[in-house]
Amino acid sequence: MSSSVRPEDPENPKSPLPRCRCLDYCLVISLVLLTMVMGSICAFYMAWERQHLVSTAEAQLKMDLQESSAQLLVDDARLNNGILNWTMSRLSDHFVGQYFEQKEQKLEIKNPGFYSIFSQITLKCMDDIKCKNEEGEVSLTILNNIDPEETLLKLFIIIKKSTTITQPASFSKIIRHLRSGDKITAQLKVSKGIENWQFDREHSVLGLSWISDYSRDSTHE
Fold it and tell me: Is the dihedral of CA 161, 162, 163, 167 positive or negative?
């Protein structure tokens, strides 16, 4: 009587090979880990690429703004009547772009168009005791071509006798159309009662920024 051979019998040549469950688990875990690693690499690359694009765009925007803008500091901290001198600071955010040319006390416009013009003056006390007893007025007028009829901005600081010392400031801003060849100057007037105050140079600025070359003549067409 012959004995029957079961399909799953190891001695049966047609029986499937035994599988190792540990090997299956290792393969699954490896695939999961590989997927996680690849995902992390892709996420890191996308974040780096995005940051790179943002940095490039910001640098290009800054270059464009600097080309069409100017920002200057008061050259001398002393409050003297007359036309002010302006200077570029060692700081990177004070500059004269290609749309302008600085000539002594004048900032000449090279590219016509509408400009945003702003100025700020800030004073600081040099002697607390004396400053408390002083009173008077400091005014700054931003002119076009040294013509009172073409006043662009007017800034005032009024100093009053006080028991406390503050850091007075004045700011003004306007949008005006400027022509090629126009020269921007700043005239300072100080009353006689002001003797122990000076400009805070880092916060006393003149700035211009080109907005558009849209001609105001076209508004009448």
Answer: negative
Write down the H helix ranges in 115-160. 128-131
Q: Which two tokens stand for residue 42?
A: 């892709």
Percent of the chain whose predicted confidence (pLDDT) is above 90: 43
Residue 100 has pLDDT above 50, yes or no: yes
Tell me which H or E stretch contains 45: helix 21-67
CA-CA distance, 138 to 191, in Å (whole number)? Answer: 7
**Residue 218 has what pLDDT?**
45
Predicted TM-score of the model (pTM): 0.66
Residue 138 and residue 199: Cα distance in Å, rounded? 11
Q: What is the pLDDT of residue 57?
A: 46
How sure is the predictor about 24, in pLDDT bands with cuts at 50, 70 and 90?
low
The answer to whether residue 1 scores a pLDDT higher than 90 is no
Q: How far apart are the first and last CA of the chain?
A: 117
Residues contacting 62, CB < 8 A, separation 6+: none
Burial class for 123, CB neighbours closer than 10 Å (0-12, 13-18, 19+): buried
Give, for 120, the enclosing helix (H) or strand (E).
Answer: strand 113-125
For residue 8, what are its two tokens?
A: 């799953």
Secondary element (H or E) of residue 57: helix 21-67
Specify the long-range contacts of residues 191-195, CB closer than 8 Å, at least 24 apart.
191/136, 191/137, 191/138, 192/136, 193/134, 193/135, 193/136, 193/159, 194/79, 194/134, 194/136, 194/137, 194/138, 194/159, 195/130, 195/134
